[in-house]
Amino acid sequence: MRPSPLMGNAQLRIDRPDTSDVSKAAHSGTKSSTRRLSEVRAEAEAQSINPWKVAILLSAALTLYRFAIFAQIGLHPDEAYYWLWSRVPSAGYYDHAPMIAWWIWLSTRLLGDSPLGIRLFPILSVLVVSAVTVALSWELYRDRRLAVRAGVWLNAMPLIGFAALFATPDAPSMLFWTLAVWALAWLRRSGDRRIWLLVGLLAGLGCLSKYTNLFLGLGIVFWMILDSEARKRLFGPYMFVGGAIALVVFSPTIFWNFEHHWVSFTKQFGRIDSGQPSSWHTLEFLAGQFGLANPAIAIFAAIAVGIAWKQRRAGDFSSAAFLFALSAPLLIYMLLHSLHSRVQGNWLVPVYPAMAIMAAEGARRSAGSRHLSRMTKLAAPVGICLIVASLFYFASPLGQQASFPSPADKLIGWKELSQDIARYRPLHDARWIGTIDYGVTGELAFYAGDPQHVQEIVSRERYSFEMVDPQLVGQPALLVIPKATWMLPRLQKCLPQMEPVGEVARRAGKRVLERYTIFKINQAPQDIFSKGCTF
Fold first, then answer.
1. Of 47, 86, 119, 365, which has the maximum CB count within 10 A?
2. Is 172 helix (H, G, I), strand (E, B) or coil?
3. Where is the Glycosyltransferase RgtA/B/C/D-like domain (predicted)?
């Protein structure tokens, strides 16, 4: 049937729409399709990223940089003190468990007595912890982007970028804590109870690193109490055998403490009652952790904890809840400690890898927020760039001679101070140098190249690991003490014949960091190397 002319015109108008609209629609559709294709492609590429490769490559690059920088930075007084420990390996020491001394003993055998030789294993341990953080994230979430982000964010935390690289007990403590948590995550996923044996070994090595790691055992108990599913699947004889293995590994330090009147345990666990209650300590603790963790990362970790709490109330014990349960006893203890006295920022370093993972989970859950998404993108580059730039500054001549106080002040001027003091020794026929502080003792012993002839005369219980030549007591000596010390009147009672012979200063360029007075000692008490100057 042929249409009428009127119908034909109508049909023509219906079948031939405005070509400009078609063009616009086609163009819009093309742009939309292209954008969507790009998003899909980016998503596919992100999902194809090998989390091990990305995290390890970044950590390896940072590790090479850290080696170059930390070879130029002077020793912290604590590092020099632990170096003294390493000269006489022992199962325990007055201040801490022995692992850091064992590490330094081995590394200095490889690289010699140098700053880099002392810091070799702590720097490498951060590389290992970065890789383990990626593996732990993958074990918990099976999400490659989250695993990559957790490994990268760990290296964007200022505490990891600074404190964890020094040769202190924090380095092995964080390493073995993180390895133990990874083994627990493997146990949680696989249900293979034999993994408790590995957990016990790693937990024991952690306790040999720092007594802080004892709190991981409490964290395991806390997790098992809260997670009913874990109790059903994982509780059994292997758990107790793993605990026994941890005890056996840790037993040398226990026996050492027994033989030394529990001195090390008393010192560390007696801190909770020290000091006066002050709300400022708690505020300082919370604010310090917020900054040391990287503010953006701390916010995302808090978001993950909040989500885990809601899920726990709904009966779902999530991976974030698992990580938080393991960390909770240590966090609670430090919070309680802050109610009485100051908490050093580095004391929480073992839980930082778990915090990085929880933060990565919090960022994933916050992907719909424009502001939080922007913060997600900035957290790593800002944190890492700040750390890299700061390390470069501290290692440069500009940082070494800064005209204003900086965190690097404790690392500066020790070698020059030692050289200045050494000039007084032949003038007064001094056979040894006395000090009243363990940090100064370690620094002068390290840079003088004559450790046996630098001795602290106050807290002699710190040096039970070494035997001092008894002939030194009757020999002339120099006593180096801070000019403003309150101990001077008491020292004069212990050493009535001491007389001032000069002054020296530790400097950062033209800026004086601390002044010291040098006294000559003609003869010290016979028991000064056993009892010290008791007040």
1. 119
2. helix
3. 95-256
Q: Using one digit for the tens of pLDDT, what is the confidence trace for 89-147?
A: 999 999 999 999 999 999 999 999 999 999 999 999 999 999 999 999 999 999 988 99
More confident residue, 212 or 404: 212
> What angle in degrees, to the nearest 10, is found between the helix axes of 438-448 and 414-422?
70
202 within 8 A of 180, measured Cβ to Cβ: yes
What are the backbone dihedrals phi and psi of residue 143, each rounded to the nearest 5 degrees, phi first? Answer: -130, 115
Cα 31 to Cα 455: distance, rounded to the nearest angstrom: 76
Q: Which residues pair with 511 in a beta bridge?
A: 508
| Residue spans per domain, the chain | 52-394, 412-521
**pTM for the complete prediction?**
0.87
Q: What is the mean pLDDT of the chain?
A: 87
Coil/strand/helix, residue 482? strand
Residues 330, 215 contacting (CB under 8 angstroms): yes
pLDDT value at position 272?
59
Instruction: State the SS3 of 399-423.
Output: HHCCCCCCHHHHHCCHHHHHHHHHC
Long-range contacts of 454-462 (CB under 8 A, 24+ apart): 455/529, 456/532, 457/494, 457/524, 457/528, 457/532, 457/533, 458/487, 458/532, 458/533, 459/532, 460/528, 460/529, 460/530, 460/531, 460/532, 461/94, 461/263, 462/93, 462/94, 462/95, 462/438
Q: pLDDT digits over 378-416, tens only?
A: 999 999 999 999 999 989 988 888 888 888 899 999 999
Q: Quick one: tokens of 207? A: 């306790």
**502 forms bridges with which residues in the sheet?**
518
Distance CA(518)–CA(57), nearest Å, equals 50
Q: Are strands 454-456 and 477-482 parallel, antiparallel or unpaired?
A: unpaired
